[in-house]
Amino acid sequence: MNERIEKIASQALEDIENAKSSEALQDIHNRYLSKKSELSSFMSKMRDLKAEEKVKFGQFMNDIRFKITTSLESKKAALQKKALEERLNKEVIDYTLPEVDLKKGSKHLFNKIIDEVCDIFVGMGYQIAEGPEIESDHFNFELLNVPKDHPARDMQDTFFIDETLLMRSQTSPVQAHVMLEKKGQGPIKIISPGKVYRRDDDATHSHQFGQIEGLVIDKNINMGNLLATLELFSKAMFGEKREVRMRSSYFPFTEPSVEVDISCFECGGKGCALCKKTGWIEILGAGMVHPHVLEMCGFDPHEYQGFAFGIGIERVAMLKYGVDDIRRFYNNDMRFNTQFKR
Ligand code: PHE
Prior knowledge:
two-stranded antiparallel sheet, binds phenylalanine, alpha+beta, 2 domains, BirA Bifunctional Protein, domain 2
């Protein structure tokens, strides 16, 4: 009997060796290992054997089955490997496909102006500081000398999230954040670009627009430093021939406060439609940081002074590129957006 079994087994191993596909292997499995196979039929003979022979025979059968099973498995793995190699050899990548014509994007004019302005001030040694667009009433107003019932709140009515949180109406709260972080130790020289929000909507006012805040705090800072800084900026931004003038104005957090005009870059100051025949164009608000604000933000006003200014991003862009409506910045009309590629 054992001889016969060995013969079947060696036949099985030979069949496995010659198998060409996984289907063939499955057939071999059925033929030699299924319940109805000849090999399995020998198992029923166990009944007639004596106890110790039973153990021996069982062991013998197990070894035979183990040999066949492992041989089936390794053949299966070898066939799969071969099939994969054949497939990889056949699959060739075609490098000759024409490239896809991807449109090259460009910066939005809004971000271009931010980059230009920041570059100019970074060149003067300023650091860029950013602040949150969702701001507390405390930072947006109170620390900037605008208490709850102050009439200046009307000019900057904004979107409130709850009693104390709002969409910031100006970038000036970044001043307060930076000053408090510095814990009364100057100097500070920062520029802070970002979005601000107000209850406005017409051709020159949008409910969302951009500002760039500038702040310098040090010992012995005066209006002359502010004027010189803004002159340098205006020439870099609008051309060497620009002159700067200041008109007195009012902001709650600066004293004195000024509105800053540059000589018209369209007519050179003679008077034209752009400057409304005045020869001057208003570009920003500025002033000396109010002693009260310095104090609330942890600086000793007897030791430190500072100046601040706020530039409207779209305003600068509209002047420089002759954009007629602030809403063009936000309508996402590609005919507008792609005009400022350089
Ligand atoms: N935050 C002011 C505004 O939005 C502008 C400003 C900034 C004025 C800094 C003075 C100094 O109107």
